[in-house]
Amino acid sequence: MTPDQRSQIVEADLLELRNQLAITPAQQPQWEAFGKMTLDNATQLHERFRERSLNFSRVNAADNMAEYATISEMHAVQLRRLAVSFQTLYATLSPDQKVRADNALRDRRTPGAAPG
Asked: Which end of the chain is more exposed for a tag (fewer CB within 10 A), N or C?
């Protein structure tokens, strides 16, 4: 998958979530921060996996395991930052929007999650 294709998928997921939550103009700054972080995370993670795949045939099993652990740690840091960004957005949501967010994120893959 190309970086543009990955971005289009993430942007489509974000648009769907934005529509489900009915983000208001007042909530737009928090939404934009969350969306940017989601896109940045997905781009960085995709690039890291791409780099890994380029060198995959030249690394031994121990180095492969260590590199995957490093990527997992990077992803964990990204998700912690994303959670903080989402909490900032969530705090601005109305009770109805919070119910929609709760349901939407229970029923779907979290934006910016590891490639699957």
From this structure: C
| Residue at 1 is within a domain | no
Q: What is the mean pLDDT of each run of 10 residues along the chain (116 residues)?
A: 83 94 97 95 89 87 92 94 96 97 81 51
| Cα–Cα dist 113/89, whole Å | 18
Domain contains 63: yes
The model's pTM is: 0.83
| Residue 16 belongs to some domain of the structure | no
42-47: long-range contacts at Cβ-Cβ below 8 A with a sequence spacing of 24 or more?
42/6, 42/7, 42/10, 42/111, 42/112, 43/3, 43/6, 43/7, 44/74, 44/78, 45/71, 45/74, 45/75, 45/78, 45/112, 45/114, 45/115, 46/1, 46/3, 46/6, 46/115, 47/3
Look up tokens 């995957």; give the residue.
68
- Does 59 reside within a domain? yes
Strand runs labelled E in the chain:
none
